[in-house]
């Protein structure tokens, strides 16, 4: 069960598709962990949920585990969910937390076509000073609405048996689409932040990245903003305060 807490007034959460920490138009492929690290320190972020993370890949450095390196910079706990093997290493999604992680579960999500990239859902139970925060993050299929819908249905089934309080990620879909209609059966999409667009970074046109709460949770999502982080990635990050 997702057990809420009264011991912490607010938890600051960031969701970010980091594009393996390289600018979308960077032909030299410079890896920049420092910009997000500095942002997280400046804004006193408690939890980071990240997509498109490289671990020991050729393109980002065979000796570089991006999630561990970022966690070390921020003195955070972390977990990683491998979605695919890539260039001699791994690629996937991650959660970092200022507070200890009591448990982590990684779920494989279905796909409509065999050739499509594998996707997953990473769920962590985070130990707050008094109570727990159960948070999940995902990165849904980029090209197939059929796959996104199948993945959304799988997430709602997981939610019904092992409930999360927050779901974050790059959903690769806008509100009103079939995948998000499926997710909206279990999670609340806040109309107040519908105009906070996340792609592209310059002249943003769409909102496909989200932090949403379970309909069964008493959490409140406040101070929800997007931020373009020095041109890093091809997405804007989302920062929000979650109150109890």
TrEMBL record:
Biological process, per Gene Ontology: GPI anchor biosynthetic process
SUPFAM superfamilies attached to this UniProt entry: DNase I-like
Gene Ontology CC, one term: membrane
GO molecular function: catalytic activity
Top-rank taxon: Bacteria
UniProt cross-references to InterPro entries, sorted A to Z: Endo/exonu/phosph_ase_sf (IPR036691), Endo/exonuclease/phosphatase (IPR005135), GPI-anchor_lipid_remodeler (IPR051916)
Gene3D superfamilies on file: Endonuclease/exonuclease/phosphatase
Stretch forming the signal peptide: none
Ranges of residues in domain Endonuclease/exonuclease/phosphatase: 16-197
Entry protein name: Endonuclease/exonuclease/phosphatase domain-containing protein
Source organism (scientific name): Myroides pelagicus
């Amino acid at each position: 069960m997702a057990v809420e807490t009264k011991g912490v007034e607010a938890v600051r959460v960031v969701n970010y598709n980091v594009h393996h920490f390289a600018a979308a138009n960077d032909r030299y492929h410079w890896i920049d962990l420092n910009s997000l690290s500095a942002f997280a320190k400046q804004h006193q972020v408690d939890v980071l949920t990240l997509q498109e993370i490289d671990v020991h890949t050729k393109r980002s450095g065979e000796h570089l585990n991006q999630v561990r390196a970022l966690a070390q910079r921020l003195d955070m706990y972390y977990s990683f969910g491998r979605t695919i093997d890539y260039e001699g290493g791994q690629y996937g999604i991650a959660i970092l937390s200022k507070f200890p992680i009591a448990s982590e579960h990684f779920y494989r999500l279905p796909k409509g076509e065999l050739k499509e990239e594998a996707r997953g859902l990473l769920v962590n139970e985070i130990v707050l000073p008094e109570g727990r925060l159960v948070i999940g993050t995902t990165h849904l299929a980029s090209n197939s609405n059929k796959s996104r819908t199948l993945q959304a249905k799988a997430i709602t089934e997981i939610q019904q048996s092992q409930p999360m309080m927050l779901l974050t990620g790059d959903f690769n879909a806008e509100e009103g689409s079939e995948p998000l209609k499926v997710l909206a059966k279990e999670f609340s999409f806040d109309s107040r932040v519908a105009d906070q667009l996340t792609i592209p970074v310059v002249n943003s046109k769409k909102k496909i990245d989200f932090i949403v709460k379970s309909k069964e949770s008493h959490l409140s999502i406040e101070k929800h903003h997007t931020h373009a982080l020095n041109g890093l990635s091809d997405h804007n990050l989302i920062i929000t305060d979650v109150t109890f």
